Amino acid sequence: MGWLTRAIVIVVISASAGTAMAQSFWVQVEAQPSLRDGEARARAWAETLPDVAGFAMSTGWYAVAIGPFSETDAAQKLQLLRGERLIPSDSYLSDGRNFRQQFWPVGAALQQQTPTAVLPEIAADPATPAAPMPAPGAVASADTAPVADPAPPVEPVETLAQARAAEAALPRADRELIQTALQWQGFYSAAIDGAFGPGTRKSIAAWQQANGVDVTGILASRQRADLIAAYQGERAALGLTLVEDAQAAIAVEMPMGLVTFDHYDPPFVHYTEKDGSGVRVLLISQQGDQNSLFGLYDVMQTLEIVPFDGPRERSRSGFTLTGQNDTIHSHTEVSLRGGLIKGFTLVYPAADAVRMERVLKAMQGSFKGTGDTALDETLGQPLAEPRADLLAGLDVRQPALARSGFYIDSKGTVLTAGADLQSCARITVDGTDFEMAFDDTALGFAVLTPRDALAPMSVAEFQTTATRLNSSIAVAGYPYADALSAPVLTFGKLADLSGLAGEPGLARLALGSLDGDVGGPVFDTSGAVIGMLLPRATGGAQILPADLTLAVQSTAMAPALAEKGFAPTASQRSGTLATEDLSLLALGMTVQVSCWN
Fold first, then answer.
1. DSSP states of 53-94
2. Which of 42, 75, 187, 269 is spaced 20 to 30 Å from 332 by Cα?
3. Structure confidence by residue, pLDDT tens digits, 334-355
4. Which residues does 489 contact at the CB level (< 8 Å), separation at least 6?
5. How far apart are CA 269 and CA 18, in angstroms?
6. Does CATH number 1.10.260 belong to domain 164-238?
7. pLDDT single digits (tens) 294-348
8. Between 1.10.1060, 3.40.1000, 3.40.50, 3.40.1130, what CATH number should domain 249-391 receive?
9. Residues near 460 by Cβ (< 8 Å), separated by ≥ 6?
10. Going by C-beta distance under 8 Å and a sequence separation of 6 or more, which residues neighbour residue 457?
């Protein structure tokens, strides 16, 4: 009866183990047909989620699960992970009844084994003599040494025919997942339909080539596991989650592992970087029409988060803005539908461009309006100290240098002071891009030409005769940068027709000017241009009077301009213009020149 007694003991132990197993619950995320695939997938999941375990199943498959938990905790965990899209939508709750030997984490099965107890003599078979116990400290002989667990069987190499058969047996959801993973990594761009046509085969072949495996166009089971693990691992690291903002009435997938909600400042919902990721997201939501759309398009380009370089496109119903420099990249998409303007901006470090391009595609594919409302304009908290260089909580790009200039021909050619313009990465005139045609460093002026032809309201007419000393003059310019939308006239007297050291071609003006006036036209009383304002000398040992300003005379600039093909118009004006008429003339001619770096 000794063997029967031993059998009863073993059965009792097994039953107890099964009862203990039944008291734990697991979130089962997937099952694989082989131990090798099961270990690979468990390893991939363990890189992004805690409490990952792997079990051989009674069905012959290998389960990857998360746990153990109580039944309530497991249900909550399942709902949370599904809601955050960190696990497949077909994951389910398991009580572990089908789980057998644990293969992940490695060594877990050995750690969970119950130590073998010494059975009483009644459990021994009298017919079988018991082996003597070794004395304390004695070394076990070869006959009594413990036998090591046999090595796991080597998984046979999968043939192409077997891979094709395994692929054909995949349910549609798994095939769509493969296409989605290929699309995520940039190898597939067609519809996600689960149909493995020529396009999918070509994408698989491209993925295989990029990963250094045999190019067959058919994924082996291990390749399939690696592809999906990489896709799911990257998404989990990014925290891609469908965010539904009820205030903005927008739903979009966002990298919540990299950003976090910050505040509302209409028309923007601000998501700032998380853990130093350098990533920012704006959700854009406002009511408006086409004029509002075009105004937003112009305003967005003034923000520091939208670098100058990059394609821009605007239509009657939307626009896209891409900005790139060595530090950041940003992409903005906005559309107008039914009186609602909605969109988003994604900003990220230039060094993270490859990964963030995938995020951008996810946002583009998932973005949608969720209602017929827009962000309430009164939502959010205003700044305690309003700043002119902020727009809805965003830094507005400021020019490195701002000065004045004026049109000298009907094509929109602009004359301005040339000092410091050579270092500008970009030059704009009233917000429009211009290029430097030439720079006369001797006289201190530069000529700017528009990239697209312009039609100015008025152009300068150069005075060809000497102006009487102590006669009244006026300078038109933008002394306060962009604080005013129109040029300002500053009046004074013509003090001398030479520089401080008697230099010809210069003029001294008894007039108080500001830095923003530099480059502006100097008018006589008839409205003819007698010169262009030069920057004040700085850094010398002498401090000049505040009402002393230098200008380069128009008679000195005219020959140099004509030589370069920009001959100015000679003035036929006479008499004295009323102040309001001179202001109107200056308004149509004077421009603001901005230097950007």
1. EEEEETTS-EEEEEEEE-HHHHHHHHHHHHHTT-S-TT-EEE
2. 187
3. 999 999 999 999 999 999 998 8
4. 474, 475, 476, 579, 582, 583, 586
5. 53
6. no
7. 989 988 888 888 888 899 999 999 999 999 999 999 999 999 999 999 999 999 9
8. 3.40.1000
9. 406, 407, 408, 415, 521, 529, 568, 569, 589
10. 587, 588, 589
Superfamily of domain 21-112: Sporulation related repeat (3.30.70.1070)
What's at 270, amino acid-wise? H
Q: Are 442 and 556 in contact (CB under 8 A)?
A: no
Residue 149 tokens read as: 């667990």
Q: Over range 60-80, report the average pLDDT.
A: 88
Cα–Cα distance, 80 to 442 (Å, whole number): 72
28 beta partners: 65, 92
pTM, entire model? 0.53
Token pair, residue 80, equals 């949370």
Report the SS3 class of residue 126.
Answer: coil
Average pLDDT estimate for 369-383:
79
**3-state SS, one letter per residue, for 444-479:** CEEEEEECCCCCCCCCCEECCCCCCCCCEEEEEECC
Token readout for 491 is 């009046």
User: Quick one: which H or E segment has residue 252?
Assistant: strand 250-255
Q: Is 119's pLDDT higher than 60?
A: no
The token pair that represents 403 in the structure block:
């000065």
Neighbouring CB atoms inside 10 A of 151's CB total: 6
Contact 573, 527 (CB under 8 A): yes
Give the span between the Cα atoms of 484 and 284, in whole angstroms.
Answer: 28
May I ask the CATH class of domain 399-597? mainly beta
Q: Which residues contact 242 (CB under 8 A, 6 or more apart)?
A: 85, 251, 252, 253, 366
Q: Which of 334, 332, 317 is nearest to 280 (CA)?
A: 332
Q: Are the CB atoms for 498 and 589 separated by under 8 Å?
A: no
pLDDT of residue 585: 94
**Domain residue ranges of the chain, discontinuous segments joined by +:** 21-112, 164-238, 249-391, 399-597
| Separation of alpha carbons 278 and 281, rounded Å | 10
Cα gap 565→562, rounded to integer Å: 5
Write the Ramachandran bin of 62: left for phi over 0, alpha for psi from -120 to 50, otherwise beta.
beta
Strands 529-533 and 548-553: antiparallel
The separation between the first and the last C-alpha atoms of the chain, rounded to the nearest angstrom, is: 95
- Enter the DSSP assignment of 367: -
Q: Are 407 and 456 in contact (CB under 8 A)?
A: yes
